[in-house]
Amino acid sequence: NEEKKAKIIGIDKTLDLALIKINSKNKSNINISDETLSKMQSIVAAGFPALHLSDDLKLTSGIISSLKGIGNNSALIQIDAALNPGNSGGPIIDKENGNLAAVAVARMEGSEYQSINYGIKSSRVKEFIESNRISIPKEKEKKKKIKRKELANLLESSTVLVYH
After folding, report:
1. What is the reported pLDDT for 37?
2. How many whole angstroms separate alpha carbon 94 and alpha carbon 61?
3. Enclosing H/E stretch for 154
4. According to the model, what pLDDT value does residue 140 have?
5. Is there a contact between 74 and 68 (Cβ–Cβ < 8 Å)?
6. Which residue, among 103, 31, 110, has the nearest Cα to 69 in the 3D structure?
7. What is the model's pLDDT at position 71?
8. Strand locations in the chain, DSSP E?
9. How far apart (Å, rounded) are the C-alpha atoms in residues 70 and 93?
10. Rounded to whole angstroms, how far apart are CA atoms 38 and 67?
């Protein structure tokens, strides 16, 4: 609930990702696992769309619809969870174990499209982070099934609003 200055560590224009650093202690973090994503996998997306309505973190759930994005882009997944402006850059996590599945990046707009939204696969996010000389801690143990309240608390404590 406070503003912090951020430093840009890395940018990938192709993936539409930026890595930023702030001076703050993490309360919690979302693990990036090496698990393979699959169609019909249940996910939850978090972000801050519609700030004019409230500054509360919004959560939306759905499934992974496709393991490829527009033009067969294998860096992306397609999800049916609603994404809106303000979700971009937010986590898309596996509903069962709370691990990062993707990062919200785009949605299809127009009257002929419904629930076609995209995220950058966690494997690509991990490669981007590591290519900027940031090490990602290994998972200590396989997470068990996470409870709904724990999932909401994880997202609330690890998702931040970034604007410029």
Report:
1. 97
2. 10
3. helix 148-158
4. 64
5. yes
6. 103
7. 93
8. 7-12, 17-21, 42-47, 58-66, 76-79, 91-94, 100-107, 117-121
9. 21
10. 7
Average pLDDT estimate for 89-107 = 94
How do 117-121 and 76-79 pair as beta strands?
antiparallel
Question: How far from chain centre, in Å, is Cα 109?
Answer: 20
User: Following DSSP, what letter does each residue of 52-83 receive, concatenated?
Assistant: TT-SSPEEEEEEEEES--GGG-TTEEEE-S--
Q: Which helix (H) or strand (E) holds 128?
A: helix 122-131
Rounded (10°) CA dihedral 63, 65, 66, 71: -120
The C-alpha atoms of residue 59 and residue 80 are separated, in whole angstroms, by 13
The identity of residue 135, as a single letter, is: S
- Indicate the residue type of 87: N
Taking the C-alpha atoms of residue 87 and residue 65, their distance in angstroms, rounded to an integer, is 18
